[in-house]
Amino acid sequence: MATAPPTRPARVSVHNISVAFVTMSENAPTSSRKRRHSKACTRCRKRKIRCDFQFPTCGACTQAAAPCLGFDSIRGVDKPRSTISHLEEEIARLEIELGQIRSPTKTTADIANAAAEGFSTRLAAAMLAPQGPSRKQGSLLPLNSPFFLTESPVPFVKINLSDLNQDVSFEEPLPVTNKLSSIPRHVIDAMLKHYCEIYRPLYPSIDEANLYEACERVYNNISPSAFDIFSVHITLAISMQTLMHKDEKRATTASTNFWTTAADLLDQVGTSDPWERLQALQLCTHYAFMNPKAVDCSRCAPAATRLCLQIGLHHELPASNQANLDSKALQNRRRLLWNSYNIDAAVASVRCQPYVWPTLTTAFTARFPDSGSQPSPTHQFLLLRQLESEITMAMYYPDLSLEDAPWKASFGHWYTSVQERMNAWYQTTRQSINLGEKIEFHEMLFQCQILRLNRPSPRFPRPSKEMNKKTLQISIALIKEYATVDRMGKLFNIWHAAYYIFESGVCLIAMILTGLESSEQDHRILMEEDVTILMKYIKILPSLLWKISRRWPGVAPHASTIDSLCAAILVKLEERASGGLIWDAEFYAVKDKVSQLLLFSPMPAGVQATLESQAVGTELPPPSDGHSLSMDLGVGFNPSDSQDLTTGAVPFYPDWSLSEANLDPSSLVYPDPYGFSDGDALSWDFAGMDSDEILAALLAEAEPLMLNDVDATTIPGG
User: Where does the Zn(2)-C6 fungal-type domain lie (predicted)?
Assistant: First the structure.
């Protein structure tokens, strides 16, 4: 058998092997083999030089000013170098390092130490935190929060008056929504003009030109902002108070409806602009003075002051910054700061609570607004607020630790000085036409402070006979003043009025009780003619509070209490007039109740004190209704340093006596500061318009009232 020759192996070229390998690589799935991606750029690979792998351009390409591209080794193409890949690698590396750091397990001791440290920190923070609501709360809450839109605090009493309230029904006007454009434009202009001339000088919360520009945008619906609509409607609500004397029900309805529209926009006002929020808080405080059942002035006013300090209005801008602002912007900064101080200090003064303002130092450099050649009502108000603050702290909080308080060194010297300064302030205001017109009720503001200087207080729990006599006279004078103002239709700020009428009325009753007791030993204390005059004003007193309670139901219990006390006092005065006086349990029950009707008892103690006697200690009383005391910012600020006041020629205490000539409601203690007499009909300048015409335009039967003239969707955020 022939054997086959051995087979020679086929010659395979290198080229064929390469082609077969490439073909197999292309057919194999890409996931089966992972190739290493080169980090070197294309240029460095081709030139066979070392690449430093910098992203997004390596050092060699940077020096050569050449494009730096990466190389896809799988697809064999150039591509942009991946910064993302580099960052992903860095993240992976950092995660590995972080895992190594966390790998050691915590021991029980480590956990216990960390827990103890956290507990200690929280405990220290709780101990140092202020008691009550946080001071930051007001600046964090929306303006339509119940924190602000709740009733203002009523006069403080130490007993519960709820069971003394009579069944009195109060008719609330129903809010009506309509368009501002439905009211004739000349009526709107007349009301705004009235606000700018009568109300704004007292509390300049908004620039007059800005207010008219906002009204133009709102009335014509030219893209008005929420603040435009709010400011126009709340100023109209304030201006409407003037028409209360003409038709209280219709004017109240119109004012309430203006306020309803303004309040509906509060959630959109000042959310991002602190200037809008500041002006809104000041306007709300002003409105609360007139309608205290709608807004809490004791919260809005301090919130405005805190906001002023937060945005730095208490610092005068450096000269370099002032060069970039016009004079109007600088004036607005100063105006808003001092208006906040004015309303905040007023709220504290009315409630007889301490208020301290920083000293004008390098830390507090704000200047007063320029007033040109006219005396500045703002500066005159600041002088009054400083005097009110001094009187409140010296007479009612003598133990407050204040450095360099003028009454600490020599109380007698301070007592004489503050009387002279009060008299100088009154004379300056009264003799200036501009100040007398702008600070219209300066007479009552003056008398209220004189009352607090003489009535029983923690510093003088046992006033002298002369001080008791002045307390009696000024209490009657204040009741007479308010009766005259009410009859003339000018009882606008009912929040102030409720406090001052209640305080002067309680002081009057306390002095009558003191006089009745003293008359048993000295019949000259209350003469027969004095009893007749006292009975006259005791009858007037309750009617004033009842009238205020129609617009502010919160003081109805106070009116009811005063009414019952006055009825009991009248019985005792009639007994005294008939020649006898029955000392029974009812008399002492009335006396005990009167001693609890004010924050500080109006009933004098037994032995009389002297000016230089040792101060009687007192503790800070708890705030009423959960409201905190006004801010304590440091040692007192003294505006009188920047304006010299000289004592007027008129004696500080005129020779008042309880005679019919001096105390009849038809005559005033001083010459008439209001420019009218008993027989005058009240007249206001509404740009030549009659009050009936304005009320008819606002409350026509066909179109009940105005208000929101812009749909909510047109307001940013609405």
Answer: 40-68
Angstrom distance (rounded) from CA 554 to CA 311: 35
623's tokens: 């705030």
Residue whose tokens read 């929101």: 708
Dist CA 312 CA 570 (whole Å):
56
How many alpha carbons fall within 13 Å on the CB side of residue 568?
Answer: 21
Global pTM exceeds 0.85: no
Degrees to nearest 5, angle at CA 22 with 18 and 27: 150
Quick one: which H or E segment has residue 69?
strand 69-72
Compute the radius of gyration of the chain from its Cα atoms. Answer: 39
Tell me the CA distances in angstroms from 160 to 157, 293, 557, 589, one per residue in order.
8, 20, 9, 15
Q: Which two tokens stand for residue 439?
A: 């600070």
CATH tag for 40-84 (out of 4.10.240.10, 3.60.21.10, 2.40.128.120, 3.10.20.600): 4.10.240.10
User: Tokens standing for 353?
Assistant: 């609570």
The letter for the amino acid at 25 is S
Please say whether the beta carbons of 520 and 529 come within 8 A: no
CA 648 to chain CA centroid, Å, is 35
SS3 463: coil
Q: Cβ neighbours of residue 146 under 8 Å, at least 6 residues apart?
A: none
Enter the tokens of residue 55. 């992203």
Positive or negative, the CA dihedral 439, 443, 445, 446 is positive
Q: Give me the residue label for tokens 């906001």.
A: 307
* Structure tokens given for 141: 């809450």
Rounded to 5 degrees, φ, ψ at 166 are -85, 165
Closest CA to 654 of 644, 640, 668, 666: 668
DSSP letters of 128-144? HSPSSS-TTHHHHS-TT
pLDDT of residue 400: 80
Torsion sign, CA atoms 132, 136, 141, 142: positive
367 pLDDT band (50/70/90 cuts)?
confident
> Cβ(303)–Cβ(148) under 8 Å?
yes
Q: What is the largest CA-CA distance in the chain?
A: 175
As a whole-number percent, the residues of the chain with pLDDT over 90 amount to: 34
Domain-wise residue ranges, the chain: 40-84, 172-387+682-718
For 478, the token pair is 């204040």
